[in-house]
C-alpha cells in the first residue's frame, strides 16, 4: 500500500497550523488572514478558531483580531521546565546587563524555536522575541549556534553550501552573529548551549544597534551558558 503524506487528522493539523501562524506573527491576525495562510475558506478558519477559543488557546479582541490565548502560556510552561527554570535567571541578568532582549532557543525538527525570552528592565526600547517564535535553523545566529553542535549529515537537506564555512568559523570563535537574516534591521549574537540529554540549544540576544562589540556580547553569553550548564547538569 503506498505511503501517504496526508495528516491523520486534517482538522487537528489545521488547528496546530493556526497556533504556529499566530506564534510567528508579530501582531494579531484577522480571520481572513488566518484563512489565507492556511489556504482554506473563511468559514473553516472560523470553526477552527471557535474550538481553539473554547479551550482558551486563542483569544479575540474587540475588533475580532486573533492572538494566542492565556492557556498557551500554561502549556508552554511545561515544556523543558527544568531547562527554563535554570536559564531564566541568566537570561534576565544578560538582558539587564546589556540592555538587550535575551532568549533561549532549541532545535525543533528543522527549525529553531524560542523557548523563553526576557526583555531588559530599564531599556527605553527593546525588541520583542516571543516564546514559540520559530524560523529555519539554517538562518539567524541562534540557528547557526545550534548547527555548530550537529554533524553536517544531520543538517536540513536544503542548507546552503556556504553555511558550512560560516558554522566552521563559529565553532572556532565560540559564537555566531546575524544581521537582517530573520527580521530586517535586527542583529543577533548567540552562543551554543550543549546540555547532556537535551536538544541542541543556544542563548542569544537580539537588538537593533549597539556600541558593544560582538565579542564582548559573546563573552557575556558564554559566561551565562557555562552557569546554566553547571546548574542543569549538577
Q: Which characteristics define this entry?
A:
alpha+beta, two-stranded antiparallel ribbon
What's the structural blueprint in terms of helices and strands?
Blueprint lengths: L9 H15 L6 H8 L3 H13 L3 E3 L5 E3 L1 H8 L3 H18 L2 E8 L2 E8 L15 E3 L4 H7 L15 H11 L2 E4 L7 E7 L7 E7 L6 H20 L1
Antiparallel strand pairs: 1-2, 3-4, 3-8, 4-5, 6-7, 7-8
Q: How would you describe what is shown here?
A:
The protein is an alpha+beta fold. It is 43% helix and 18% strand. The strands form two sheets. A six-stranded antiparallel beta sheet has the order 5-4-3-8-7-6. It has a two-stranded antiparallel sheet with strand order 1-2. Helix 2 crosses helix 3 and helix 5 runs antiparallel to helix 8. The longest helix has 20 residues, at 214-233. The model has no long low-confidence stretch (mean pLDDT 87).
Helicity level, as a percent range? 40-55%
Strand content: 15-25%
Low-pLDDT runs: none
Q: Which structural class do you get from the secondary structure elements?
A: alpha+beta
Structure annotation, total helices: 8
**Major β-sheet profile:** 6 strands, antiparallel
What would you call the shape? globular
Total beta-strand segments:
8
* Strand order in the largest sheet: 5-4-3-8-7-6
Distance between the termini: 50 Å
Radius of gyration: 19 Å
Mean pLDDT: 87
SSE order, one letter for each helix or strand: HHHEEHHEEEHHEEEH
Give a brief outline of the structure.
With 234 residues, the chain is an alpha+beta fold.
Amino acid at each position: 500500500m503506498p505511503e501517504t503524506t496526508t495528516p491523520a487528522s486534517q482538522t487537528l493539523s489545521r488547528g496546530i497550523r493556526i497556533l504556529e501562524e499566530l506564534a510567528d506573527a508579530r501582531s494579531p491576525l484577522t480571520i481572513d488572514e488566518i484563512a489565507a495562510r492556511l489556504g482554506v475558506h473563511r468559514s473553516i478558519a472560523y470553526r477552527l478558531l471557535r474550538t481553539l477559543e473554547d479551550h482558551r488557546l486563542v483569544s479575540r479582541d474587540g475588533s475580532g483580531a486573533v492572538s494566542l490565548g492565556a492557556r498557551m502560556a500554561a502549556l508552554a510552561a511545561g515544556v523543558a521546565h527544568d531547562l527554563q527554570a535554570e536559564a531564566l535567571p541568566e537570561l534576565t541578568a544578560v538582558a539587564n546587563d546589556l540592555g538587550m532582549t535575551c532568549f533561549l532557543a532549541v532545535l525543533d525538527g528543522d527549525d529553531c524555536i524560542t523557548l523563553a525570552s526576557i526583555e531588559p528592565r530599564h531599556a527605553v526600547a527593546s525588541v520583542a522575541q516571543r516564546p514559540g517564535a520559530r524560523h529555519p535553523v539554517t538562518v539567524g545566529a541562534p540557528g547557526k549556534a545550534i548547527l555548530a553542535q550537529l554533524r553536517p549529515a544531520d543538517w536540513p537537506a536544503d542548507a546552503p553550501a556556504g553555511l558550512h564555512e560560516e558554522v566552521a568559523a563559529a565553532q572556532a570563535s565560540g559564537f555566531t552573529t546575524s544581521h537582517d537574516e530573520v527580521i530586517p534591521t535586527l542583529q543577533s549574537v548567540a552562543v551554543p548551549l550543549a546540555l547532556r540529554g537535551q536538544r541542541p540549544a543556544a542563548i542569544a540576544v537580539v537588538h537593533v544597534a549597539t556600541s558593544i562589540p560582538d565579542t564582548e556580547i559573546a563573552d557575556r553569553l558564554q559566561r551565562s551558558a557555562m552557569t546554566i550548564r553547571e546548574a542543569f547538569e549538577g
